[in-house]
Amino acid sequence: MRQYFEKMDPLGKPLSPKQTESMQDNCKRVEEVMKQIDAEVERIKNVGVPLQNLHERGEMSVWERIDYLVDPGTFCPLHSIFDPENEESGSTGVVDGLARINGKWCVIIGFNNKWMAGAWIAGQPENNLRVTDIAKILNIPLVWLVNCSGVKLPEQEKMYANRRGQGTCFFRHAELEQMGRRMAADAEQAGERRTVLVAVRELSRLVELLAKMRGEISEAATVNVIVSPQWLQVRQAVLVALEPYPEARVAVAARLGQLELEGEP
């Protein structure tokens, strides 16, 4: 498909001055709609506890946390005014979108701690499911910024019930975790050595990213990944995946052992 789009002929032809003039009304109407959307986004950002109060508690808003975490200028917000259940705040209580972290594209979602201390509210299960689906379809990491007070008790029935309820979000998390392991296993069965190595590389990067998010890896100049418990799981997965290739397995095992010796304090 990429080659097709790169070589395809341009569609249509340039608009004439008369056509451009006739579209001015449409452009103005679109601009008015965009102003309304921008105003609603700004209203949602300001709903709930004032930002100054959060700062006095030593907290950051979810928008500030996202800006602090992601590579500058890469956050692309999604579902900004999504409110399928007409919740009183006019939102789903979460902020999400796509962004790069250390150069790696991720899906990011965080609880809006300015509204009900980040509680689960009506409409949020649908939002969460859409976000996890994006991570699954794009096959990229899903990063949560969790600051949640629990569930809004008078609306529990809007949170847990049916197949698109909040429980499905946790099921999707299990699927996403299994996708990484299954990618290596499928490649092993197919005898695709290169795919195995690519999968191992991506698993290693994902483990490192998760460890950084959990504070298990320092952001200092020297980062020693091999001392984390997750690295042992990745190391074992590498060796198991390379069992059909004895020579490569021996070489990789030797190199891993050398790295572990170099990484000892």
3D structure, described in words:
Helix 7 packs antiparallel against helix 8. This protein is globular. Helix 6 links the parallel strand 3 and strand 4. The chain has a four-stranded mixed sheet, with helices on both faces. The protein contains ten helices and four strands, in the order H-H-H-H-H-E-E-E-H-E-H-H-H-H. The protein starts with a helix and ends with a helix. The chain has two domains: 131 residues, Alpha-Beta Complex (2-enoyl-CoA Hydratase, Chain A, domain 1), CATH 3.90.226.10; 72 residues, no CATH class. With 265 residues, it is an alpha+beta fold.
Tags for this model:
alpha+beta, 265 residues, single chain, 2-enoyl-CoA Hydratase, Chain A, domain 1, 4-stranded mixed beta sheet, 2 domains, 9% strand, 53% helix
Give the CATH superfamily of the largest domain: 2-enoyl-CoA Hydratase, Chain A, domain 1
What is the CATH third-level topology name of the largest domain?
Answer: 2-enoyl-CoA Hydratase, Chain A, domain 1
User: Low-confidence stretches at least 5 residues in length (pLDDT < 50)?
Assistant: none
Oligomer: single chain
Strand tally is: 4
User: Architecture of the largest domain, according to CATH?
Assistant: Alpha-Beta Complex
Cα radius of gyration in angstroms: 23 Å
Distance between the termini: 50 Å
Please state how the strands of the largest beta sheet are arranged side by side: 1-2-3-4
Sheet-strand content, in percent, reads 5-15%
Globally, the shape reads globular
How many domains make up the 3D coordinates?
2
Order of helices and strands: HHHHHEEEHEHHHH
Biggest sheet character: 4 strands, mixed
* DSSP summary: helix tally: 10
Kindly state the percentage of residues in helix.
40-55%
Structural class computed from helices and strand pairing: alpha+beta
